[in-house]
Amino acid sequence: MTQPNILELARQGDTQAIASLMNRHLHPKGINAQVAFQDTCLEVILESAQVLNQHILVAFIRKGLTALGVSSIEIVKVYGQQTGQEFPVWSKEFNLGIAEADLEALDDEHFSSNPQSLTICINLSGDTAQRLTNQDFEFIANQISTDILSSCSEVLIQKVSISNGSSVITKER
Q: Is the CB of residue 71 less than 8 Å from the CB of residue 106?
């Protein structure tokens, strides 16, 4: 298939052509796309040896399909799967008829009305020969807590609790 033929077929909803266009960009990154179409729903399975970045890949799929302008596709379901695994690690469904800015507003509204919190517990252990004092433990625990709380922007971490068997350091937002 030549480039114009693939583009034309993809615009007509041909799943092999759509997969071929996606794989041109994804294969060099170690990702394989499989595409299926039923009724007005396009399913895209992205497979890689590594856990895939959902946000970046869903945006890539959305942008590419919007640019193609396939009128027969209304709903898109994207699945991120590790090679050899039976079930996807993540999935995302979106409507091609909703503008991306509107979708982000809906996601923000959903997140603010349904916040999901996460608590992280870490148990530090070491032998007494290393002479880990309570001061050392407090310093390490505070550093870990600060790093975890400051580096998570897409997940609301409510509490980080770190223990060393005798002391517990807890930080909450």
A: no
The three-state (H, E, C) secondary structure of 23-90, written as one string: HHHHHHHCEEEEEEEECCEEEEEEEECCCCCHHHHHHHHHHHHHHHCCCCCCEEEEEEEECCCCCCCE
Contact between 13 and 72 under an 8 Å Cβ cutoff? The reply is: yes
Q: What tokens does 27 get?
A: 């294969």
In terms of Cα–Cα distance, which of 82, 102, 86, 84 is closest to 94? 102
Cα 99 from Cα 106, distance rounded (Å): 11
Pair of tokens at residue 92? 């995302």
At 105-150, the pLDDT tens digits run 545 544 444 444 556 666 666 555 566 666 776 777 767 767 766 6
| Exposure of 32 in the CB half-sphere (CA atoms within 13 A) | 8
pTM for the structure as a whole: 0.56
| Token pair recorded at residue 115 | 């916040």
Q: What H or E segment, with its residue span, contains residue 18? A: helix 15-26
State the DSSP code for 173. Answer: -
- In whole angstroms, give the CA distance from residue 8 to residue 163: 60
Instruction: Give, in order, the Cα–Cα distances in Å from 161 to each of 115, 139, 145, 158, 172.
Output: 20, 14, 8, 10, 9
The pair of three-digit structure tokens given for residue 29, joined into one six-digit string: 């990154």
